[in-house]
Amino acid sequence: MDDGDVKNLMNRIAEALERLAPAAATPNVPADADAFIWHADASRLEPVHEVNRLDIAQLVGIDRARDTLLLNTRTFSDGYPANNALLWGARGMGKSSLVKAVHGTVAEESEGSLVMVEIHREDLSSLPKLLSVLRESERKFILFCDDLSFDADDTTYKSLKAMLEGGIEGRPKNVLFYATSNRRHLMPRDMIENERSTGINPGEAVEEKVSLSDRFGLWLGFHNCDQATFFEILEKYVDRYGLDIDRDTLHAEAIEWSMTRGARSGRVAWQYIQDLAGRQQKTLD
User: What is the model's pTM?
Assistant: First the structure.
């Protein structure tokens, strides 16, 4: 076999290998939606054509957080510097609902130029790949992670730290990161306390754990609502959906409902409204 035959054989082998394992297609951002879910296993953005969200006017008792996040998002959408945001605090008080409502409001104002991409906590290790996709787009993105927290031996928070600040590439200018969590420092208190008690340099170990939350420029706290706010939330729902119930009966039933749940929150109020609508055989459209 001469050199020409060897060269032809090698070319045929290379072509066969390419057919068996073609180069991975570079994912892009489809133009037919303004909300997506990132699937890390397939490196794919799945469009969400109908986002499950409330109108921003329905969010009661979180006025300061609402106004702050709305202004930050509008500033970003207009092309000016803005901060990553951590919405932390009491469960069921509208953290996730606020992020989705704010995106819906600003996306409508900007005619779809602002996009929301949801990434699951367990997929944070794929952030570099996702950012490389978003970086190439002319649109602006709110990267949203709901219920963000980390447990012992979980090192994926380091990927997030590098993305927020500190990495060589850093966060793309067309991407903001919004996260919700029940924990202000994103890690359980006992995990931080263990670092203090067992670490060779406990101060340094603790600093590494809590420095992640420091990389969010906005901290928006959510707290359990009082009874007056709870009633206001319920009354807005009743008026919006045309439910037939007088205020005294509404308040009495809502108090009983909240006592059985052991909490007053926007989520508990919505669960009561669904029960009330079901009893009255009305839809919540």
Answer: 0.79
